[in-house]
Amino acid sequence: MRDPVSPLYGANLSIAAFLKQPPEWKSSVLGALCFSADTAESRMLAGMETPCMTIPMQRLDAGDSICEVWHGSGLLTQGQCGAIHYRHDDDVLFGVMAVDETAFTASTDKTPLQQATEAAYRQVFALLDNLHYPYLFRFWNYIADINAHSFGLERYRQFNLGRQDAFLAHGRDVVGNVPAACALGSAQGPLTIAFLAGRVAPLAIENPRQVSAYQYPQQYGPRSPTFSRASLVRLGQDEVLFVSGTASIVGHETLHPADVVAQTRETLANIAAVLEQANQQASQPGFNLAGLYYKVYVRHAADLVPIRTELERAVGAVPHAIYLQADVCRQDLLVEIEATAGHPFFMPGKRD
Ligand code: 3EB
Fold first, then answer.
1. Which residues are known catalytic residues?
2. How many angstroms separate the CA atoms of 223 and 221, rounded?
3. Which domains does the chain have, with CATH numbers?
4. How far is the CA of 178 from the centre of ligand 1 (A)?
5. Residue 31: left if φ>0, alpha if ψ -120 to 50, beta else—which one?
6. Who's near 313: CB < 8 A, 6+ residues apart?
7. Residue 244 CA: which ligand 1 atom is closest?
8. Closest alpha carbon to 155 in 125, 130, 126, 188
């Protein structure tokens, strides 16, 4: 079970189990990201007071739906501001938003998705400025048809334009001190964004094997993606590490196109390198592959078994991992893996 003094911790459980938790348990929930919900579950989640984001991605390793639930501590306050639903305690704020890009019309210089992204991120930054949670720990980004091209540009690249413009508009750093993130493609649905922010600055961690994403060259799009490889957050005695979506990229290039096993190995070598950097900065170094809670985004469902086999081999045990079918933000990437570490996760009843 968790350390009872931990001010921020997560839990992974099915949506059915989440909905059935007692009120005392739910009262400390800041919010949740829910995957593989059926129609009835989506309706129930939408009716909850807690900010819950549903992402239309199929879970591959089990029939169950899955919720990543973040708990805070003490008195929680919730609210709604524009498209954002949020809940916070004294230290941490969790927010979710869904933005329909069809509400925007293409202008001469900005595509609808770019405008939707910029508007969404500007709303996040304005809210965090107003409520005094200025430091972003982590973003989750889900974009329909992420690899499709429109207006002469891949949609992920349109997203990167809007995201960076919002950072710049709010005077935020676009290199160095930037949050951890992931960006995945779903088959349909609005632009969906979740975030965790707080009142202490996290440490942004980079990977010496990789060019920082915010320094990717122009060949990957007119604007570089604005994220760090990981963020290390110190909250009281606890340290929580958010490892961004990680893929088979060395330097700035995709390695092992069309080889899912080699891509998974390279991805895990990247995560191991990020952990090594984190351990150099952590007050309690001890992050390791076996201690992570993984979310594995698999482009082709048929690749589940080889990816899972490689992850188990690298971890040396059965990892805490959830596998979801998703598109990854470069056409040649077959897998992307994100993770959380610290001692932040526990499972009510069972592990994973
Ligand atoms: C990469 O390393 C893979 O645009 O927010 C991973 C994590 C990736 C976050 C983002 C993109 C993002 O470039 C893709």
1. 336
2. 5
3. 10-341 (3.30.1330.40)
4. 13
5. left
6. none
7. 7
8. 188
